[in-house]
Amino acid sequence: RCVIKELESLGKALYGAKLIAQRFQVRNCSHHKDPVSGSACLLSMIEEGNPHHFFIATQDQDLANKVKKKAGVPLLFIIQNTMVLDKPSPKSVAFVQKLQTDQLVPEHQKQSIVELKEKTGLAKQDGEKRRKRKRAGGPNPLSCLKKKKKTQEGQEPSAEKKKRRKRKRNR
């Protein structure tokens, strides 16, 4: 709502941008009674880790730099009538790597899991894996077909009976 209010206050110069903004779903912000600038409103909506998974689409470089400092917020911008999704910021990449390393099981726990499996007999044994041997195939089924008999003259008898008709051209 704050972005639409800001576009209305800027007048006829940004009327097209206002129409485009109104087509999208309008999200309620915390400052609906006393609106703030559009960039401040967008930053306040993604402040707490972007729980609603918003994308920020802007041409404002200041806003883009502030968004890049926050982890997990995709950034869209327009270059020559084409919407471009910006590559993830270093903050976002570092955040994802930290999440992945936290989810992995530590090495000492992996070793203890293997030992417990061996004690209970659940560990896979190497002797269980056997490959199936390929067997020799039979003859090619097409080579086993019977040969077709040839006619005496090498021509079909029905070919002599057929007559060719000439087409008459209509003028």
UniProtKB/TrEMBL annotation:
Residues 107-171 are annotated as: Disordered. Residues 107-129 have a biased composition (Basic and acidic residues). The gene is Utp23. Its main location: nucleus. Involved in rRNA-processing and ribosome biogenesis. This is UTP23 protein. Residues 130-149 form the UTP23 sensor motif region domain. Keywords: Nucleus, Ribosome biogenesis, rRNA processing.
